[in-house]
Amino acid sequence: MLTVAVLISGTGSNLRALLEAAADPGFPARVVVVGADRQADGFAHAEAFGIPTFLVPFRDFETREHWGEELDRQLRVWKPDLIVLSGLMRLLPASVVDAWSPRLINTHPAYLPEFPGAHGVRDALAAGATRTGASVIVVDNGVDSGPILAQERVEVLPDDTEHTLHERIKPVERRLLIDVVRAIARGELELTAFSTS
Ligand code: GRF
Fold first, then answer.
1. Homologous superfamily in CATH for domain 1-100
2. Residue 113, preceding bond cis, omega within 30 degrees?
3. At 194, is the pLDDT very low, low, confident or very high (cuts 50, 70, 90)?
4. What is the pLDDT averaged over residues 172-179?
């Protein structure tokens, strides 16, 4: 059974989908802990599924490196086989990426390498793209620049707002994330083949 830690910052809808998938006894992975950099609404999903949580508030640390050291310490307690960044709105320091990659994956609401960064949906709209997408990648030390594990196109509709477009992308992100986690757990996807260092 593949053990998974999930890191969030927000509502955790992708986390929720993964928890629901993992509740199926036939699913080959289990979420063992959910962590966040702030008091995230998504903690409620973890609690609903009886999954432990930890909070490492970014604002409590003087530097990103110190925050990362504490995050890493918390993750090591749980010894997860895989860490999923699911809407974690912070860049991890290189020390954390180097410690865990390639067993560290991220979901992104655009068709990478198009529109990396914190505003992938907004940037696609601003660029006038007629299609964007969703991606699951291995985290490296760049911004959304790691090896792509799965991705799928999503059409942009003429009257789309950032919200409506993001709400259409998110179900695709969820499906891709669940497929990738399942494939890793079954050994169909070998993360060592995507080593980033
Ligand atoms: C997802 O689109 C994720 O890729 C992006 O933020 C969103 C998180 O949504 N970085 P949620 O917290 O899972 O609802």
1. Formyl transferase, N-terminal domain (3.40.50.170)
2. yes
3. confident
4. 97
CA pseudo-torsion sign 72, 76, 81, 84: negative
Selecting among 108, 119, 163, 166, the annotated active-site residue is: 108
Torsion sign across C-alpha atoms 160, 145, 103, 1: positive
Choosing from 13, 139, 148, 167 the residue with most ligand 1 atoms within 8 A of its CB, the one to mutate for a pocket test is 13
Are 37 and 57 in contact by the 8 Å Cβ rule? The answer is yes
Point out the ligand 1 atom lying closest to the alpha carbon of residue 8.
12
Asked if residue 4 lies in contact with residue 35, where contact means CB atoms within 8 angstroms, the answer is no
Active site residue 108: yes
Encoded tokens for 98: 């180097």
Instruction: Provide long-range contacts, Cβ within 8 A and 24+ apart, for 26-31.
Output: 27/182, 27/185, 28/1, 28/2, 28/182, 28/185, 28/186, 29/1, 29/2, 29/3, 29/4, 29/82, 29/181, 29/182, 29/184, 29/185, 30/1, 30/2, 30/3, 30/4, 31/4, 31/5, 31/6
pLDDT in tens, 57-100: 999 999 999 999 999 999 999 999 999 999 999 999 999 999 99
